[in-house]
């Protein structure tokens, strides 16, 4: 009896031990599964952070590329401005050299500015020329002058002749070199409106309206010289704001009229005369007047 009881007790103990061992394994399995889930969540979180970091880097690279393009554009603009500035300096130096040569040749007195009509052949040539460029030039037949709008010749505050304006100046150069104008010279006169120069960048090149009007006249003379007009047959003047043809207080439209460059065809120092389109040359037609 005792032996049977002992066996029974041992059997129960074995069952209890097996049950206890099974519970421990289940708990361990659950812990491992929980740890795996945590690791998986961490992996997904890290992947999301990595994806966000890559996206941020791509955006930064695009922004950097855009800024590099902007910097390249600024460098190109600066190079163009430097080129334009160098061209202006070269033109001014060449014009001053031309004026010095003219003085050395005894041409210091300069041509006479007249307010008389031109001889018939020259009048017809200039009239035809003006009709070819109605939007750019105006022919003042009573004064023997061709007037260009400065807004078409030059950019704001600049004394560099626009490329698109050079064609009309080339056409006028052909007239100056024609037989009809053989006894005449070209006097280039610059004018401005009454607005003072305020932009610091402009003031570096043109301190006042006097400077700007003179520099523009010199630039136009340089273009004419480039088209073959001889230096001894040209002169330049600058009146700044002091010879308006419209009331500056009338607003931007009147001010635009005053910003202009005029070229007078005047008798040369060799004693040429100027007559009207239908009148013969006489001493009376040699009367001179101040350019207005």
Keywords:
292 residues; alpha+beta; 60s Ribosomal Protein L30, Chain: A; 5-stranded mixed β-sheet; 10% strand; rod-shaped
Describe the structure.
The protein is built from seven helices and five strands; from the N terminus they run ααββααβααβαβ. The protein has 292 residues and is of the alpha+beta class. Helices cover 55% and strands 10% of the residues. The protein has two domains: 1-104; 110-286, 60s Ribosomal Protein L30, Chain: A, CATH 3.30.1330.60. Helix 1 (2-104) crosses helix 6, helix 2 runs antiparallel to helix 4 and helix 4 crosses helix 6. Strands 1-2-5-3-4 form a five-stranded mixed beta sheet.
What's the CATH class label of the largest domain? Answer: Alpha Beta
Gyration radius (Cα, Å) is 44 Å
Q: Helices and strands: which structural class? A: alpha+beta
Helix content range: 55-70%
Order of helices and strands: HHEEHHEHHEHE
Report low-confidence residues grouped into runs of 5 or more.
102-112, 271-292
Cα-to-Cα separation, first versus last residue: 149 Å
Overall number of strands: 5
What CATH architecture of the largest domain do you see?
2-Layer Sandwich
**Counting H and I runs of at least 4 residues, what is the number of helices?**
7
Number of self-contained structural domains: 2
Strand content bin: 5-15%
Instruction: Report mean pLDDT, rounded to a whole number.
Output: 81
What is the CATH superfamily label of the largest domain? OmpA-like domain
Summary of the model, kept short:
The chain has about 290 residues and is an alpha+beta fold.
